[in-house]
Specification:
The protein is built from 36 helices and 36 strands. By secondary structure, the chain is α+β, with helices and mostly antiparallel strands. Helix 5 packs across helix 10. The longest helix is centred in the middle third of the chain and has 39 residues.
Length: 1303
Amino acid sequence: APSPHIELMARSLLFLLAFGAASGAPRLADWARARRRSKQLHVEVDPHGSIHEERESRRLLELQTVPQDQGSANDVTTTTAAGSNDVTTTTAAGSGKDVSPLDEDKPVTCRKELDPGEDGQVDGKNDKTKLVCTQGGEVVKPWKCEPGQSICCNPRMKESYYLRCLARECYKVQSDPLCKEHKMCTLKCQNNCCCFVAGTAWTVNTVYRNVEQKALVIMMALLGTMNMEDEQNFSDNSTKREEPGAQEKWMKATCSEAMYLLAIMPFAGLSLSLIYEWAKKAAGKMGVGGIRTDEMTKEQREEWMQEEKNRQKMKLDEYLTEKEQDGLGGILQLVVTEVSGMSNAKWVITQALSLSLYHFLVTEPVETNVCALGKTGRLMVLLRRPLNPSSESAKLLKGVGTLIMLLSAVALIYFRTIERMLYLATNYPTPSVRARLAPIKPIADLITGKVYLYTIAAAVAMWIMNFIFFKATIKSWGHSDAKNYYESENACCAQYFRSGTKATPWAKPRRVGGMRIFFGPYPMPHIFWELGKDWHFLRCLEPLPKLPAEYDNGGYPSSGGSPSGPEETMGFLQLLLGLMNTFLGTLGLFFFGVNLYNLLMNIQNCPTGVVLAPCITQGACAGVVRTPWFAHYIVSNKLMVAEDLAREAVKADVPIKEVAKWIGVETVGQAKKIIMEVAQDSCQAMYEGLIIGPNDTMNGMHADWLGKQHATYYLEQIKNKNLNITWQAKMYSCHGCVRCMTLFYFTDVQNVVELIEIFLLIIASYFSALLASMMGNVLENCPMIDVHFEADPTQKQSVDLHYTEKSCLSMIGRTFFFRYHYCGVPKHMEYQEEGMRKQVQKGLRDTKKLTDPFQEVDKAATWDFYNLFDATATRRFNVHRELLGLLEGEEVVNAWTVPPRLTRNQKIIIALGVFFFIVGPILSALRKNKPSCAAEAILGTVLCWKYVEFFVLKRRPQAGIVLTTRRIFQVTKTPRFWGLMGYTEPLIKLDVLIHNCGIFYAQLQMESAVPLSRKILAKIFKLPVSRRGQLLAQGPMGIFKMWRERGDTYNLINYISQVTFLTPLASLNPRMGKCLMYNEKVAGEKDPPDPPGSGCCCPHTPPPPMMGTAKSILDRYCKRIKGELNVYGRKLVTRPSRCKDLCCGKGIRCGCECCCCCQLDELLTEFIVTTHRILVEQRAAQRYCRCTAVCRKTPGIRVTFLAHNQAAAYVGLMPMKTLTRKKIQQDFTIKLLQQGAREYQQGLMLHQKPYVIAGKADLPIKHKIWVPHINMIFDQLTQRAPMHDDSSGEDDDSDEDEFYENM
């Protein structure tokens, strides 16, 4: 058995942990729920059990229960004859029992009758209506329930418990007269005007009450005693003179002291730092005022400005030596951000929780970011990081301070425990007690009445020890420097971000931001999105490490304009796998917790002397009330509801008399007898479950291998350890029950496996954290300039936001300026920019009338006043050259606005608003047929619009894409709007990628047509039609990807084609291509035939919609460059070859579309080879059963072009498969590979399926004439041939022309 003082201290700690939840939150919830109770029924019960009934509850029942301690009372029954005003009053004498107890076997009739007023007469003036119920001619209480329908039917239940139970269970006993008379809100709100809002509030309240009830039951079990086996004989009662419940009262008082100590210590720590600061300022106060330039003379002001310049020069010399400044050729642009200290709120919280350890140990570290741009275009970055950053030191010391406070509370509880042991030894000087407390008595003599002094001494000692340790560990004055040097010509990407938040409406905003400039190839996507990731901005442009792969193998493009390749699918599967692992881990933790809870409850189901002895010998039954076996007896016999029993169980003292009232007996002796009988029955039930049950399982006939193995091993251990469960009445204990229950749990293989599973889950969590830390190394080793700043007005040394923002944007602009200043502008870029300027000068290019209109503006001076589009023209982008940092000579190809996608939180806000304001009230109005509910639905619709407008629409940022001849910009700006905390801070996010007018590969994938629903919406709201899609582009700097959801994605490839770098191939001659195509025309080879029997499906291939009137597919999608001529082109097709492919070409699958298994589409592959590039169009079109096109997904289009100088290799495939018993099918496929690619791209694949259908007599198959033509063209594309310097094509050899004419 454990030592008594250790057991008592453990019980005290357990009570301390549960004290806040059991005494604070439930009691506060009780008070709030009591305030919300219905006026028709308001019942309150004080801690002593007396009943206070207010308002209508005073006249609910005429018969009042007489307390047992009064001996007798007069019970009054009032009846009124039907149809008359005569009132007959009958008085009966009782002996403390309820008059006319309800007999559930006889029917009860109730009616409303007049109740005389204060004058005692029925005159119709002051009379009130009351409910009178009779059973067999005798007036009874109006308790009418069907057996088994409600737990409120027990006639022995106290009246207050009945009313409380009835108010909660009214929906189960809707026929009860009290429910009908007082119109309590039932589940279906039939007796109350409960529309959606009131019904929802009632449902939430009911759920809360049920959860609270379960929590109280669990808390009751947790607050129980430790239920450890105690072998002592209780005939030697060491606490027989102590008042009942004294130990529980002492525990409550001690825990209250510990709570007060935990609340006072943070204020003491904060006061210590404040007093020190005040004394320091008072000692160092010199009385010198600040410098005021408005009171200076001109000479003094000039002198002061010169001193400021010298100070800035000294500050620059602090970071850069003279040699480093000379190496940069002089400083042209400098950005310096220094962040030191923390905000006032953080400082107060840190000092309070760290007990001022942070104040005395940490010197405010300064985090410095310096970025200098020299006149030579060289950049130097200095990152000075403190050895112990303030945030890390604050977290560490706050944890230490919190640990000191908790240990001080534990020390207080320990000292109070020793003090109580001394009290028991002094007042009960029996030999057994003196022997038990002899080891601790000398210590107890020293602390009697001095507990607070020892607690303070322990807290101070722990504080001093931690101060000495961390004084030698934390070196906040140290810092580490990192200097990086970059050349402007290697800059490829830049980002700038700025936003802010406000804690309160009257507080100044806290602003954060940063600047990043990347060098080398494009950064990884997760690094690109890392800056400002906690805010909402546009995500329609991102760099990629490689070209994404797709599943279709050059076949039918994905519908919806968004291809689902292996990488996307792998990411989705990884997310799904992570969710499944999370679910399995959570499920394992849940079952592990349930099993541990069951173990705890089953252990407490064992009646022990620690619980029973105080109740039987002293009458203190708090421990018995908290046990599950006694609660099961009370609730199962419907003596009290579980909620009320849980409320009574948390009391410090529950006397035996109160338990006797619950049980329904008159004497304390009868109550003790019943408690002992219930305990003995519980012990017998545990014996049957832990001894007899495993024997039955082991010898049973049913198949349960694990159960039988568990029972066999358990019984073997029971025999080896000589354990058994017996009831020992003299010791008030069920001997051996706890040990058997613990052994039964830990011998179960399933429980052991759960323990192993939890261990593996902890290891998996560690590995996940390790992987996350490894990803952080990628960001640390990325070649970039990373300058971040934080402008908090309450910091000791903050950042001038406007100056820093201007410096960062100027740094980005000048970096790109030096890139072209020293490296020069490519020749083709100069031609492109000059041509665009001439078009504008001649009036041939009106940017406001383009498909995606834009205009150049210069009104806004700063980003705070810059709007990306006007309120009257939301599709027209406003390009501000100065704020965007456009270089001299850099021209805008096009710019378009993009509405950012809704975030997950915004979608949840809209969904909840629509449900609670529109859907719920409308359904409630239709079901209730009440005008008030209809008015609630109408009002809810208006409120929903304002709700969505305030929380979503006003918070949507302005965003757009700007494509110039040198770079591509992704711009996001959220204007200031009035929010819950006043005017918000604008959000600015600027992403810049350099393409250098060198795009050589592009792939467009989009919807081939506009869905009908989108057409209808565009017609209603007068918006242009939109086709969703994406575009991939590759240049010398890397690969980037763009999405588009509003607007026509078809235009993107046209814009990108204007910033390409294409070189004509000398070996390709347009005349050669004409000759090849003429020979194919003469041969008259046709497309593959339709499958037999497909004529009933009306086969027809529609022309490409919304593609203009261009004859060539190159002019349909791209803009030709100067001198680009067509060489060769051909159309290929992929169709079903038989009826089986037509009907089940997609396989057996389910989908939300018509004919989901049928392959009704054909793939039209058309390619064209020019002197500069190859362009391939892969268009899926529904050829068969076009009447079902409305019910099917929109097919897709994929368009790809590649510069000739980037073609590396090609492969030709002619696979063959069995078609019928006598026929075979041969297909034709050719794939083109670009330089540097790891795999063949789907957009550069040509398919003809079927190529030929032949029998045995047709072998060998003769190739069609166009196959060698394609091979010849692809040979010339992939071989290393000289490139033309110009693209005119006029210096052709005459002999070669004559040769092609002969062909």
